[in-house]
């Protein structure tokens, strides 16, 4: 009789070891190794088309690059414009999408709302966490999305309006066995499958508990084979760890085509859908939703919600022009500088990298002469979002100076520039989109780097046409120049 093969896996990162280890050499976590059965006697590759049998691997032939025919991906355009933007234009047929987020952030609500409002597609929503009655109660609470056109294949001309009949194409299945799920898929033949969640599924080909590294990897592999062979897109909902990473082995993110992160603060009504990995589009796109009692509502103009309505000018508040993917946004950056009551000053940043904040403070102290070494400095990006765009450096530096001098900056002024270590204002990419967004929202002045302006050495097709903007564009070269223009 053949021996059953076992191995030890790290439950944090999926590292495999032949023996038990106290500390994982990959993620440096302690006591995370568990023993799992990795192979049964006489095991072979499971076939999703016939769950009672197995199949052997096919041998593919090599083909020359110029003989490969390339076709445009077939996409299913959903009624949710934010979801389409993050995916790069819609759901690609045969793709495997993984969406992760904290418990209670709204992952299941977003996917169920999407499944209920796709009237031209037959959608199978598989839940291993909730009963049919619970899903029915949530479905009755969710209202249809605003009419923005129904589901259609990309490049189709007709787009029927979205109505209440969208839920007629949504089927609910409460099951955790992949073999039973594939049997229902063969009978129903859905055009989109949603799995909630991948950590609850288990395959009979692996003798591990649901949620273990082996089970998550095997179930994802079976769903991947099904998606690629049948051309049916599959959306997986995944849990995350306390560190914010998607639970399970790291190979899970390598197997799927797209990884989406659904994030936000429980104390804010806004949620952010961010693309971490996307094989069919940009990996830097971002979608914003508003959490209401009747479901998630897409936010088409995020600049309006990220800018607070102030009645009087306040010091330490500036407006910065940033980019998330292809979308320009104006965000409010806040700074508070106060005398430290203790010996060690505090440095805190919400929505911004603390190390970069320390760099900005060092530049202001070295180049502008501000004594910030004994000051408490707090930075905040409003709206609960996190920004990594270096173009907000200039706005944050202006906010710190404004709070330190207790002098407010005019309402209709915004900033777009990167601050260098020598105090120079460096050029940022796609400055024209930032200027156009500021002009659209009624701003009167925008500070940019003078190196973004056209010069004689540039090709005429690369020069910025400043004549088509009504907003006043103020080019600056250094942080000292910005300080003199703002505060004299």
UniProtKB/TrEMBL annotation:
Ranges where the RecA family profile domain occurs: 72-240
Pfam families on file: AAA_25, ChlI, Zn_ribbon_LapB
Residue ranges of the region described as Lon-protease-like: 376-488
SUPFAM superfamilies, sorted: P-loop containing nucleoside triphosphate hydrolases, Ribosomal protein S5 domain 2-like
Task performed by this protein: Plays a role in repairing double-strand DNA breaks, probably involving stabilizing or processing branched DNA or blocked replication forks. DNA-dependent ATPase involved in processing of recombination intermediates, plays a role in repairing DNA breaks. Stimulates the branch migration of RecA-mediated strand transfer reactions, allowing the 3' invading strand to extend heteroduplex DNA faster. Binds ssDNA in the presence of ADP but not other nucleotides, has ATPase activity that is stimulated by ssDNA and various branched DNA structures, but inhibited by SSB. Does not have RecA's homology-searching function.
Record keyword Zinc-finger present: yes
Family designation: Belongs to the RecA family. RadA subfamily.
Keyword Metal-binding: yes
Domain remark text: The middle region has homology to RecA with ATPase motifs including the RadA KNRFG motif, while the C-terminus is homologous to Lon protease.
Full protein name: DNA repair protein RadA
InterPro entries per record: AAA+_ATPase, DNA_repair_RadA, P-loop_NTPase, RecA_ATP-bd, Ribosomal_Su5_D2-typ_SF, Ribsml_uS5_D2-typ_fold_subgr, Rubredoxin_2
Transmembrane portions of the chain: none
Gene name in the database record: radA
GO biological process: recombinational repair
HAMAP family, A to Z: RadA_bact
NCBIfam families, per the entry: sms (TIGR00416)
Motif RadA KNRFG motif per record, residues: 277-281
An MF annotation (GO) of this entry: ATP-dependent DNA damage sensor activity
Keywords assigned by UniProt, alphabetized: ATP-binding, DNA damage, DNA repair, DNA-binding, Hydrolase, Metal-binding, Nucleotide-binding, Stress response, Zinc, Zinc-finger
Domain of life the protein comes from: Bacteria
PANTHER family membership: DNA REPAIR PROTEIN RADA (PTHR32472), DNA REPAIR PROTEIN RADA-LIKE PROTEIN (PTHR32472:SF10)
Positions that bind ATP: 101-108
GO annotation, cellular component aspect: cytosol
């Amino acid at each position: 009789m053949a021996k059953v093969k076992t191995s030890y896996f790290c439950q944090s990162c999926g590292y495999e070891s032949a023996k038990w280890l106290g500390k994982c050499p990959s993620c440096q976590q302690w006591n995370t190794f568990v023993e799992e059965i990795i192979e049964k006697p006489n095991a072979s590759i499971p076939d999703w088309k016939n769950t009672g049998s197995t199949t052997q691997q096919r041998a593919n032939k090599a083909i020359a690059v110029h003989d490969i025919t390339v076709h445009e991906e077939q996409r299913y355009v959903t009624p949710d414009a934010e979801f389409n933007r993050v995916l790069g234009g819609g759901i690609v047929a045969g793709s495997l999408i993984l969406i992760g987020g904290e418990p209670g952030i709204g992952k299941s609500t977003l996917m169920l709302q999407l499944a209920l409002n796709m009237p031209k597609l037959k959608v199978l929503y598989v839940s291993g966490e909730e009963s049919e009655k619970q899903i029915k109660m949530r479905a009755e609470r969710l209202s249809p999305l605003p009419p923005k056109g129904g589901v259609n294949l990309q490049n189709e001309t007709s787009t029927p309006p979205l109505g209440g009949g969208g839920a007629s194409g949504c089927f609910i299945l409460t099951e955790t066995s992949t073999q039973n799920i594939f049997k229902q898929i063969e009978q129903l033949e859905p055009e989109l499958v949603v799995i909630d969640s991948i950590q609850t599924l288990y395959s009979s080909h692996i003798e591990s508990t649901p949620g273990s590294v082996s089970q998550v990897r095997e179930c994802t592999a079976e769903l991947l084979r099904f998606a690629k062979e049948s051309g049916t897109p599959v959306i997986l909902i995944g849990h995350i760890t306390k560190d914010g990473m998607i639970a399970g082995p790291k190979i899970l993110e390598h197997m799927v085509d797209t990884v989406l992160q659904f994030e936000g603060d429980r104390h804010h009504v806004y949620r952010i859908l961010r693309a971490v990995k996307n094989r069919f589009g940009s990996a830097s796109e971002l979608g914003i939703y508003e959490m209401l009692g009747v479901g998630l509502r897409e936010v088409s103009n995020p600049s309006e919600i990220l800018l607070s309505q102030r009645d009087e000018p306040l010091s330490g508040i500036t407006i910065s022009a940033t980019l998330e993917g292809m979308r320009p946004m104006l965000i409010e950056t806040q700074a508070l500088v106060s005398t430290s009551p203790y010996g060690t000053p505090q440095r805190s940043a919400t929505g911004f990298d603390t190390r970069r904040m320390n760099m900005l403070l060092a530049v202001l102290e070295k180049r502008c002469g501000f004594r910030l070494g004994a000051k408490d400095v707090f930075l905040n990006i409003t709206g609960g979002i996190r920004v990594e765009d270096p173009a907000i450096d200039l706005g944050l530096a202006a906010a710190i100076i404004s709070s330190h001098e207790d002098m407010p900056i005019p309402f209709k002024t915004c900033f777009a520039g990167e601050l260098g270590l020598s105090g120079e204002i460096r050029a940022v990419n796609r400055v024209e989109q930032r200027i156009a967004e500021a002009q659209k929202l009624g701003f009167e002045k925008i500070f940019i780097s003078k190196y973004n302006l056209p010069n004689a050495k540039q090709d005429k097709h690369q020069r910025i046409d400043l004549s088509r903007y009504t907003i006043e564009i103020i080019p600056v070269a250094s942080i000292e120049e910005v300080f003199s223009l703002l505060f004299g």
